[in-house]
Amino acid sequence: MRLRSVPLGVVTFLGLLVVVMALMASARSFAAPSAIPAWLQAHVGDGDGQISQVVLERARALYLKKVAQGVVRNPCYFAMDATRPGDLGNGVLGRRYYVVCEASQSFRAISSGHGGGRNLKGTVDFSNGRRCARNFGNAMDSELTAGGPYMTREAKTSFKGYYRIGAKQDVAFQRTFIQFDGEGEAANARQRVIGGHAAQVLRGMCLRKSPSSSYADHDGFVPFGKLVDYAGGRSNGCTSWSPADARQLISMVKDNPTTLYIYPESRDIAAVANGHSGSGTYWNASCLKEIGTPKFWPRKTLEPVIAQYKKDHPAAPPQPLPICKEP
């Protein structure tokens, strides 16, 4: 059988075609890690326990960027959607904080507090309710949540006092705080002391005589209070978790930093407030119906107002804790 000769131009064209197809295949394989895998895409949605598309895309892009830069080696990353409700009613908390571990194909949605803001009575009200956040911002002393990219940093454990767990049985309460470092509008996170911790605090503080305690002051007294869990409430702008979730999350990032992306940023808030929500921007429907129009308070406008309010309403000098009345 005689083979027909193939013109040189055709051979050259076929050779180039093979090279181009090989390069395209290589490009696809290189781009594959940035494409959301099917198992994770299955968790995308706007319902409780799901993560909205834009939140996942931004959180994942931040994580992959930091991994590529060599500053993150943690196999997991975090995200938070502060437009979702924190309280669903009947003691059920909304799940809006996400833990994604792609290597193990693990996805968890848990509850988290949002910044309560403040009501500077007679001046300006930028406070938030328990269920939905309307106000966001990055001003010092505003107690507001600021969206954007963050990195988890050092862990600091502090003694807060003692609380009672049984008949004359007291336990020392030590709370660990994970410092966040932010970028862009969240760049002052360290200055604002923004981070993550368990949603627990001691209330009704008094001083109890306990000279044998290593935490006793020079007169032999230690602070004592009632342990309160406020996982269903608001925070001072920090990210607060239930005690059980806090223990797990803190152990994941202690000495092994990772990324946290908090949605929304000011650009998202402006888009929704102006009725331009569309591609790349969204707001939880139930909360948007409740709050009406969200607002971002930039530090350059809000900080002078807060500073003037503090000047006009000086805080009372701190009073010493009273001595506990023994039960």
Sequence-ordered SSE layout with sheet pairings:
Blueprint: H1 8-31, H2 38-41, H3 53-68, E1 76-81, E2 87-89, E3 92-93, E4 97-101, E5 106-110, E6 119-120, E7 124-125, E8 135-137, E9 148-166, E10 169-182, E11 195-198, E12 200-209, E13 221-229, E14 239-241, H4 243-253, E15 259-263, H5 266-273, H6 285-291, E16 295-297, H7 299-312
Parallel strand pairs: 1-15, 8-16, 11-14
Antiparallel strand pairs: 1-4, 2-3, 4-5, 6-7, 9-10, 9-15, 10-11, 12-13
Keywords: Signal
Protein name: L,D-transpeptidase catalytic domain
List descriptors.
two-stranded antiparallel sheet; 7 helices; disordered N terminus; L,D-transpeptidase catalytic domain; alpha+beta; signal; 327 residues; single chain; eight-stranded mixed beta sheet; 16 strands
Q: Would you give an account of this structure?
A:
The chain has a domain at 36-153 and 179-189 and 248-312. It is globular. Helices cover 26% and strands 29% of the residues. It has helices spanning 8-31, 38-41, 53-68, 243-253, 266-273, 285-291, 299-312, and strands spanning 76-81, 87-89, 92-93, 97-101, 106-110, 119-120, 124-125, 135-137, 148-166, 169-182, 195-198, 200-209, 221-229, 239-241, 259-263, 295-297. The model is unreliable at 1-33 (pLDDT under 50). The termini are far apart. By secondary structure, the chain is an alpha+beta fold. The protein contains 7 helices and 16 strands.
